[in-house]
Design a protein that fits this description.
heterodimer, A: 787 residues, alpha+beta, 36% helix, B: 190 residues, mainly alpha, Serine Threonine Protein Phosphatase 5, Tetratricopeptide repeat, 56% helix, flat
Chain lengths: 787, 190
């Protein structure tokens, strides 16, 4: 038929083809121009969205710091320092007995850049004995580079640490070229031969073994395009790669590739670029990677999921060694080096499938505090550096203490205590810094953050606030007696509220100190109603909450619902002598250029009279001496003075403990997410985790200075009558100077040790001989403590 | 017999409690304050003669609680000192303040405070920094925090009162500033 076409019609067709070709060319020019504009603009103003990087607090080194050489070596290892000999480059150290030589990395702190330098540290058992620089000059105080604990990445989850060319080991680009794109230095973006070869290899192998994409194409694919594999996208990719190559230097493209490429997945966080991947897999900076580590990273490029060294170590190892072989063949490295590198293990940090040192609950607190001053976009894109208050060692111990206790409860055989959840917060009271946060029993799981997102009744943790209000009123002392007698209160809704005691007993007239340390409900309600709900609820704000709880009588027994961080805020003020410091998780924020930006400041505000808080704190010490936390004392190092309070909510749904030493405040919550009873009190649950942690950290006794307007007196714990230190039931507590106290008739002040000896034999505990109303059983079981 | 002995002891104690100089403990040891008898010397000292004898208060009265005693002198505590590490950081902070690098000074002082959170001198330094930052309320608060840690240390207390006086003056609270200053002077004379 075609042969029969007339000359005329042939001309017509030719003309049509020409017009179409012209149009196609025009369209192509337009498309290329558009792509060119897009590529050039985006690539020139190249700014990766840079999530804010968050660092832990640095380890401070100074003479006298309690730190052993072994623990110091552990801390260095956590920071990715390598034990080696000689110590000749940043990131290396050597420990020999009680001395450590370390080549500290360069680091830009918020106030100054610290150059890389060598330090010699001598330890004297459990403390630093001397600290000197490379010239032997004594250094008074020195910060190690801090641990990178995460980034605040956007919802789409792309996270990276951008590296400059001088932070990239020379081997990496060479290895990338050798394995991925041998013609990189000469091609124009695409390598048709490579594509053909790859197609051939793939067909023969029956699976994708070799990609034909150049590094430039891979970069374009990741940077500009989505991951759909269509022919149109392939063409676009090739054109854009060509444009990129014609507009930019090879070195620029290589650096962009190193920062852009996807190298792994950590939950919903996508690990991009070799800078972050180096931290993600090896826990150290890219510049410090050795041959086998670089080889592994290059191996991962081809399939971050398929060659995931944590999930598929054999595959990853095989491919790494293949990369090493190629590097030797291509004469990038010496064959003997490649061979010995191939014999090494993968060397990745453990923590299967997630970044070492990942603390989602703490990061969550950091993010929320930053949101006060910054837009979400500033945090996820502007490349800020955040210096946080996290103490990695303490955080690790906190996670262990909580999970160990929860496991012990699992195995206790009590059904209600199985599968408990928990949360834990640690602060340093004087500076108000949050040093550890655990949001659940799986601490590295980025899920429901119980430290912040849960609101639970605080139970008896509320009692110290009632007693503080009483002491502040000036009408009560620790020796005042209050009635632990049944009370009926008409509530707002007309219901009658009849609280009861935990031990189902009534104890009659009891001293303030005894009622608090034994956590008597009836005495506390009577006291609170006498002091007034107004003054009591006001103490919540005084001690640091934003708003007071409603003025219901049940608030006296802890129906106010708080999260562990809020409890920490309240108790921090008690641990800090009545000075309120808003809790901080952030110390400083700097921008990309290192300029300091807005960050929460250290603040102290005198929130409650010193004598009242001091007196209350001394009573909280008695909780450990003779109260509900007495058994916790045994698990602590001998002589360590601590103060605290147990909390149990209605029907044993929540088990709390909040308490402090001189250096640390710890708040623990344990319970079920579905709010079912746990069968645990504050003592049998949370206190156990609390003492585990307190006993495992380096801390000091709670020994506040006595304010000038009070003085110690000896009283009988049960009667409140003044007594001698040798008498049974004697307890020393602070009183306003000149406070009138009734002397005990049976064992008055001045009773000698000899005189008291007999009484101690008869009644070593000194229990209620002076008590006017003896304790008695109640026949009927009391209704639950809280309506 | 025993009872009467006790009565006399009690009488003596009450009398002495009114006006004797009781030992002041710089570090309360509440751990020892359980029912176990404390080591000798930590209890009330009965034998000690009343040092500020006041006629009337020495009269033995049992039923009526003794009247308020005179404010007692707290035993002197040696002036607070900085550890070498804190000293280095304070020196650094002071030079940074001179140069106007207040964020830098903040970092240095906070580092020192983490090393020695109970050292009142550091809280005074922090207060001085808050003065530079024109945050006078916090300057005063830092001074008060320092006071709470300097019980018995009149030199440090005096420095804290000077800081408080400065912070009050900066807010135009001149009468209170004057009071604070006279407290500082009184203490430095001790």
């Amino acid at each position: 038929m075609a042969r029969k076409l007339s000359k005329r019609s042939r001309t017509k067709i030719q003309r049509g083809v020409a017009i179409i070709a012209l149009l196609a060319l025009l369209a192509a020019i337009v498309v290329v121009a558009i792509l060119d504009r897009r590529v050039t603009q985006q690539f020139e103003g190249r700014r990766w969205t840079l999530p804010a990087r968050v660092y832990a607090q640095p380890l401070e080194l100074y003479v006298g710091q309690s730190l052993s050489s072994a623990r110091f070596a552990q801390e260095l290892a956590r920071l990715g320092y390598i034990a080696t000999m000689p110590v000749d480059r940043p990131g290396t150290f050597r420990r020999k007995g009680d001395s450590v030589e370390v080549y500290v990395r360069e680091f830009r702190f918020s106030d100054e850049k610290q150059e890389a330098q060598r330090l010699s540290i001598r330890f004297d058992g459990a403390a630093i004995a001397s600290l000197a620089d490379a010239n032997g000059t004594d250094v008074p105080v020195f910060r190690l580079d801090p641990l990178l604990i995460g980034s605040i990445f956007p919802i789409h989850g792309e996270d990276r640490i951008v590296v400059a060319p001088d932070q990239v080991p020379d081997l990496l680009p060479e290895a990338l070229k050798a394995v991925e794109d041998r013609k990189f230095d000469t091609h124009h973006g695409v390598n048709p031969l490579a594509i053909l070869r790859a197609a051939f290899v793939n067909v023969r192998a029956g699976q994708v073994e070799q990609g034909g994409s150049t590094l430039t194409q891979q970069l374009v694919k990741s940077y500009f395009l989505d991951s759909r594999r269509t022919l149109r996208r392939k063409a676009e990719e090739a054109v854009m790669a060509f444009i990129l190559e014609s507009r930019f230097e090879k070195a620029d493209i290589m650096n962009a590739y190193i920062n852009e490429i996807y190298l792994g997945q950590d939950g919903r966080r996508a690990v991009h670029g070799f800078g972050l991947a180096s931290q993600f897999y090896f826990g150290k900076p890219l510049s410090e990677l050795n041959l086998q580590e670089v080889a592994l990273m290059v191996a991962i490029v081809r399939g971050p999921s398929y060659y995931d060294p944590r999930r598929h170590p054999e595959r990853a190892l095989e491919r790494r060694n293949l990369v090493l072989k190629v590097l030797a063949e291509q004469e990038v490295v010496k064959p003997e080096d490649a061979e010995s590198a191939a014999k090494t293990p993968l060397g990745i940090t453990d923590n299967a499938g997630r970044t070492a040192n990942y603390f989602p609950a703490f990061l969550d607190l950091v993010r929320r505090q930053l949101r006060e001053d910054y837009q979400e976009q500033d945090l996820t894109e502007a490349g800020l550096t955040v210096f946080s208050t996290l103490d990695p060692l303490l955080q690790e111990k906190a996670e262990i203490a909580l999970s160990d206790e929860l496991e012990r409860q699992d195995k206790s055989g009590r059904k209600a205590a199985k599968g408990l959840e928990g949360s834990l917060v640690v602060t340093t009271p004087q500076t108000g810094e949050v040093v550890a946060v655990v949001g659940g029993r799986r601490a590295s799981f980025d899920g429901f953050n119980r430290a912040l997102d849960m609101q639970r009744p605080i139970g008896s943790l509320a009692k110290p606030l009632v007693y503080l209000a009483a002491l502040q009123s000036g009408r009560y002392t620790p020796a005042s007696t209050i009635l632990d007698e049944p009370i009926e209160l008409k509530l707002e809704n007309g219901d009658l509220w009849k609280p009861g005691n935990y031990d189902k007993k009534i104890h009659g007239a009891v001293t303030l100190v005894r009622a608090l340390t034994q956590s008597y409900n009836l005495a506390t309600v009577n006291l609170g109603m006498d002091v007034g709900l107004g003054p009591v609820t006001k103490t919540y704000v005084q001690l640091g909450l934003d708003e007071a709880p409603p003025k219901y009588p049940s608030i006296l027994l802890g129906t106010a619902q708080l999260n562990p961080v809020q409890v920490a805020q309240v108790y921090n003020t008690l641990a800090n002598g009545g000075f309120r410091s808003p809790l901080r998780a952030v110390r400083a924020v700097v921008d990309e250029a290192g300029k300091p930006l807005k960050a929460p400041e250290l603040e102290v505000t005198e929130a409650a009279p010193a004598h009242a808080v001091y007196t209350l704190d001394r009573m909280l010490i008695e909780v450990f001496e003779r109260g509900t936390a007495r058994q916790g004392k045994r698990a602590l190092p001998p002589g360590l003075v601590v103060a605290g309070k147990t909390g149990t909510s209605n029907d044993y749904r929540d088990s709390w403990f909040a308490g402090f030493s001189g250096g640390h405040l710890i708040v623990v919550w344990m319970g079920h997410d579905d709010n079912t009873p746990t069968g645990l009190t504050g003592t049998t649950g949370a206190l156990q985790a609390w003492t585990r942690l307190m006993a495992s950290i380096s801390t000091n006794s709670f020994e506040p200075l006595m304010p000038e307007d009070v003085d110690d007196r000896w009283i009988n714990y049960y009667s409140g009558l003044e007594t001698s230190p040798y008498c049974p039931g004697a307890v020393s507590l602070p009183f306003a100077i000149g406070q009138g106290l009734e002397p005990s008739p049976s064992c008055p002040p001045g009773t000698t040790q000899e005189e008291a000896a007999l009484m101690l034999l008869v009644n070593p505990d000194g229990s209620p001989e002076d008590t006017t109303v003896p304790a008695r059983e109640i026949a009927e079981p009391e209704p639950s403590a809280v309506p | 017999m025993r009872r009467s002995t006790r009565l006399i002891v009690a009488t003596l104690l009450l009398a002495s409690a009114g006006c004797s100089l009781q030992p002041f403990k710089t570090e309360p040891e509440p751990a020892a304050k359980s029912s176990a008898p404390p080591p000798a010397g930590s209890g009330p000292v009965i034998a000690e003669p009343p040092s500020v004898a006041e006629p009337g208060t020495a009269e033995p009265v049992i039923e009526v609680p003794p009247p308020a005693p005179l404010p007692r002198e707290r035993p002197k505590v040696p002036p607070a000192k900085l550890s070498p590490a804190s000293q280095a950081l304070v020196t650094q902070a002071q030079s940074q303040r001179k140069k106007g690098d207040l964020p830098g000074a903040t970092v240095a002082l906070e580092r020192a405070l983490r090393i020695e959170p109970n050292n009142p001198l550091l809280w005074i330094e922090m207060g001085r920094l808050r003065m530079d930052q024109k945050n006078y309320a916090q300057a005063e608060a830092m001074g008060r925090k320092a006071l709470s840690m300097a019980v018995g240390d009149s030199r440090t207390q005096s420095q804290a009162w000077v800081l408080i006086a400065d912070s009050l003056k900066a807010r135009g609270k001149n009468p209170q500033a004057q009071d604070a200053l006279s407290k500082a002077k009184e203490l430095s004379a001790n």
